[in-house]
Specification:
Strand order of the largest sheet: 4-7-12-9-10-15
CATH superfamily of the largest domain: Galactose-binding domain-like
CATH architecture of the largest domain: Sandwich
Structural class: alpha+beta
Radius of gyration: 25 Å
Order of helices and strands: HHHEEHHHHHEEEEEEEEEEEEEH
Number of helices: 9
Distance between the termini: 33 Å
Oligomer: single chain
Shape: globular
Largest sheet: 6 strands, antiparallel
CATH class of the largest domain: Mainly Beta
């Protein structure tokens, strides 16, 4: 389940195996369903900084006619059950009898051996439609980096190259040759049917592009949006998020916000091999509660670095003891860019799982208006690390009002109509001071 590091470049280039493409029968999806599938592929690609989503849709069309569920290609093999299908995903029928359970899984036909071996290698998220697409994006970017037909060496360069590819344009041949060689495993010099495979991918790429129309594939890549005054949620699909390090070592998992997250194996190395980073820009300065969603993590020593307002704090989190959102603490952030949340795979407890999902930032409320729900089990060497508000979410019953024991307030010499408003103000201030003191003392 965990990566073996380091891995040779040749092995990275072939970290996925795919069955031979098949000429499929009549398309079972309706035109509307096909458009929905293409829109999902286009939008996930755009979230990853790639405007040429049609390149990925062409692969999916060549592999499964954009089908993900067995009910959409019932002549093929049945894969494992997926909630997106209310039944099994489609599995390839080109690797022997279906009872061997060795076909590729889902729309992009991920194939690491048996069904169990594929899920172990790629993560159970490939059974979800969004997870299958997300994993395909990573594979294709890595494929381009390792292609002998393309001169790039980083994910950023690979994405820039993909954004220059046009149907039947000057880079089209390099693209189709790369797909045929690295996605299908059929090389120009070592595969007798290379020309047929090449044409299969080229024809399907052209067909799906013009089926939806040129305007459909034109997208404006979303920027890394700033954090508004009230805060916001940043998914691991957000353009402010970076999935760093070798892409083959990232997997997709079921669970978390939107029922999908990513994870990688941990190491005891001195420096991170894979890492997750959210770049943070704030519209306004202020104090924000920082929470991370942690589904299915097993590392006990996830070390989060929070760069904020010219200061760096570290928060050590036992991911194995939580499931859901957990507060790392409350931190002051400056207006503008240059701030981030970072976590690396070098946790010290090797061969476990570092789980990465959504990040939630919530502005600390003014006195008397209720605070932000937090989480449990975070500890910090800096100013964060709060256990306050574990019972509820943002602004709910688990907020600041439940994290301290209420004082009786002041019933002293405040007379007349001013008594209740003054008492409420004093109580709100007492609650805020006590909550912040608890945040600091529990760090």
């Amino acid at each position: 389940m965990n990566p073996v590091r380091p891995v040779a470049a040749a092995a990275l280039a072939l970290f996925l195996g795919f069955a031979a493409p098949q000429v499929l029968e009549a398309q079972p999806l309706t035109p509307e369903q096909r458009t929905e599938r293409c829109a999902l592929i286009r939008d996930v690609a755009a979230d990853n900084g790639i405007a040429a989503g049609f390149l990925f849709a062409g692969i999916a069309q060549a592999e499964t006619n954009l089908s993900h569920c067995w009910s959409e290609l019932s002549w093929a093999c049945e894969g494992p059950v997926s909630v997106d299908c209310a039944g099994p995903v489609v599995a390839g029928a080109g690797d022997g009898p279906c009872e061997l359970m060795q076909g590729g899984l889902g729309m992009f036909q991920f194939d690491g051996g048996t069904f169990d071996q594929t899920i172990e290698r790629d993560g159970d998220g490939v059974l979800l439609l969004s997870g299958n697409v997300t994993r395909a994006i990573d594979f294709v970017v890595n494929m381009v980096i390792n292609s002998q037909y393309v001169d790039v060496s980083t994910p950023e360069e690979a994405k820039a190259w993909l954004n220059q590819v046009t149907v039947d344009g000057p880079l089209w041949d390099e693209w189709i040759t790369t797909v045929t060689h690295y996605y299908n495993g059929c090389t120009p010099t070592g595969c007798a049917v290379f020309e047929d495979r090449y044409q299969h991918y080229a024809d399907n790429g052209v067909d799906v592009y013009f089926e939806q129309g040129e305007a459909f594939w034109v997208v404006e890549l979303p920027p890394c949006a700033p954090i508004p005054a009230a805060g916001r949620l940043l998914e691991e699909t957000d353009t402010c998020f970076t999935k760093g390090g070798p892409l083959p070592f990232w997997r997709v998992g079921i669970g978390g916000e939107s029922n999908l997250h990513v994870w990688t194996g941990t190491t005891d190395a001195a420096e991170p091999f894979n890492y997750a980073q959210w770049d943070l820009t704030f519209d306004e300065p202020g104090e924000y509660v920082v929470e991370v969603s942690v589904p299915a993590g097993t590392t006990t020593q996830a070390n989060y670095l929070i760069d904020h307002a010219g200061t760096t704090d570290e928060v050590l989190l036992d991911q194995a003891s939580v499931d859901g959102f957990v507060a790392l603490g409350s931190f002051e952030f400056a207006a503008g860019a240059g701030q981030r949340l970072f976590v690396g795979d070098n946790t010290g407890d090797a061969d476990l799982r570092l789980s990465v999902d959504a990040l939630r930032l919530t502005r600390v409320e003014a006195p008397g208006t209720g605070g932000s729900g937090g989480g449990e089990n975070a500890s910090s060497s800096g100013s964060g690390g709060s256990n306050a508000g574990a019972a509820g979410g943002v602004g709910g019953e688990g907020g600041m009002g439940n994290s301290v024991e209420a004082d009786a307030g002041c019933d002293c010499a405040v007379g007349g109509e001013q008594k209740q408003s003054s008492r409420g103000l004093l109580l709100g201030l007492a609650l805020l001071v006590a909550w912040r003191r608890r945040v600091r003392t529990m760090a």
